[in-house]
Specification:
The complex is a heterodimer of chains A (166) and B (265). Chain A is mainly alpha-helical and 166 residues long. Chain A has one domain. Chain A is built from six helices and no strands. In chain B, the strands form two sheets. A six-stranded antiparallel barrel of chain B has the order 1-2-5-4-3-12. The chains are: A mainly alpha (166), B alpha+beta (265).
Chain lengths: 166, 265
């Protein structure tokens, strides 16, 4: 429980930081990690709350980020349903390999959806520098979230556990 | 470890619920309710956001500061290296300038028609001077070693690329000399520190400050070279000869370059 509280405090802080400074959608990357590692209901809720927090912190266009995050959550769920059950038993490294593509896809699609919902145009401008940033940040975030997830599962003894694989 | 459960119908319902909710919020955001929401949340969250922004800015500035410091430190290190290079270059040019000056002075002193001189470097000084040129450069035993008009010593041993010089302060080197006051005598080195002017007749005048010059009677030593300066005289009527203590013009330890005067071949 304590870990979850810390997790949410960090999410809230990161949301504010993201709304103030960062171009990189770090909250989305965290939500995607959670989405791959945790129970589907919980991960959906995380996506939804993260989107709502980001909307609140951004201070304009209420519901845009919430809607975008839910769309991305659907894509993550589809990815998860297609690949994760078969790779989960392979261990942490394989999970990380399956996380990085979905993190990139989510970031790119989130940008496209957001631009569409705000301006009404589908705009896609490849930004390889930010993709590299996503890759690097993913390599840091995913192990952290995996650790929090496994600790949280160990505490509650409910839901799925990746401890054996980690 | 259990595999994650596949999306069940309850999960799908939950998904649809969240999707509907997000669409509802999105639509709500387009109405005045959105404005009210932001006004209320802004009132509650702006101080927090301000704090986060300030903290983030401060952290950003700190990172910027340390990055700048690191860059400056690297630049400083590069400049120090450049400075060291410049100093070493400068030292090289100063050495060249000194050598050039010494050569010029030597040419002025001896003139174009004089004996050939070979410039060489001092390799060691104690107990005898060692120079870094030898028979390959044309140096022979008995040649005088000078700096300007000052006699440093005489070459006694010659190797192919080095030679040993007996200094004027060496007890092994005896020279026929005369003072600037015309007193004749013999100079003998004293413990490699000073020179004794000996065999001067009592009738001759010795004054402190007189220069002691070679007479040219020693083979290989040209006439008129300065051996040193009288710093103390000793005239004892009971003795057959009077003596004087002579100091070299400068310390041999300060010498970098000297010249070997080729004697008659």
């Amino acid at each position: 429980m304590r870990l979850k509280i810390i997790f949410w405090v960090i999410i809230v802080l990161l949301t504010f930081f993201q709304a103030s400074f960062w171009q990189l959608n770090i909250v989305l990357l965290i939500a995607a990690s959670w989405g791959l590692l945790r129970d589907i209901r919980e991960s959906m809720l995380v996506f939804f709350v993260c989107g709502l927090l980001l909307d609140t912190a951004s201070g304009h266009d209420l519901g845009v980020w919430t809607f975008v995050f839910i769309l991305v959550a659907l894509i993550t769920a589809a990815w998860r349903a297609r690949f994760v059950p078969s790779v989960r038993s392979a261990g942490f490294a394989t999970m990380l390999l399956f996380y990085i593509p979905i993190a990139l896809i989510n970031s790119i699609l989130a940008k496209i959806f957001y631009n569409f919902l705000v301006s009404g145009n589908f705009v896609f401008v490849p930004d390889f520098k930010s993709y590299l940033g996503i890759l690097i940040v993913s390599l840091v975030i995913f192990p952290l979230i995996a650790f929090v997830s496994s600790q949280s599962e160990a505490q509650t003894s409910s839901g799925l556990s990746l401890r054996g694989n980690l | 470890m259990q595999p994650p459960p596949r999306t069940s119908s309850s999960n799908s319902q939950f998904l649809i619920l969240l999707l509907t909710l997000s669409v509802f919020i999105f639509i709500l955001g387009k109405t005045p309710v959105g404005h009210i929401y932001f006004t209320a949340s802004g009132w509650a969250l702006t101080p927090v956001q301000k704090l986060v922004y300030k903290t983030g800015n401060r952290v950003g500035r700190d990172i910027d500061f340390w990055t700048t410091m690191r860059r400056l430190s690297q630049r400083d290190r590069a400049l120090r290296l450049q400075y060291a290079q410049v100093v070493s270059e400068n030292a090289k040019y100063q050495t060249l300038a000194r050598e050039n000056e010494a050569l010029k002075s030597q040419l002025t002193t001896f003139g174009a028609g004089s004996n050939k001189q070979i410039e060489t470097q001092v390799a060691a000084i104690a107990p005898d001077m060692k120079i870094s040129s030898g028979s390959n450069s044309g140096i022979r035993s008995g040649d005088a070693v000078v700096l300007g008009n000052w006699l440093i010593g005489q070459v006694v041993i010659v190797e192919a690329n080095s030679a040993v010089v007996k200094l004027t302060t060496s007890p092994d080197l005896k020279l026929s000399v005369a003072t600037t006051g015309d007193a004749k005598g013999v100079s003998v080195g004293q413990f490699n520190a000073s020179i004794l002017l000996d065999k001067v007749l009592p009738s001759e005048r010795l004054d402190e400050g007189d220069l002691v010059l070679t007479t040219g009677d020693n083979p290989g030593i040209p006439k008129g070279l300065v051996v040193g300066k009288i710093v103390a005289t000793d005239k004892n009527n009971a003795e057959i000869f009077q003596t004087a203590r002579v100091e070299p013009l400068a310390s041999f330890g300060d010498l970098d370059n000297v010249f070997v005067v080729e004697g008659p071949r």
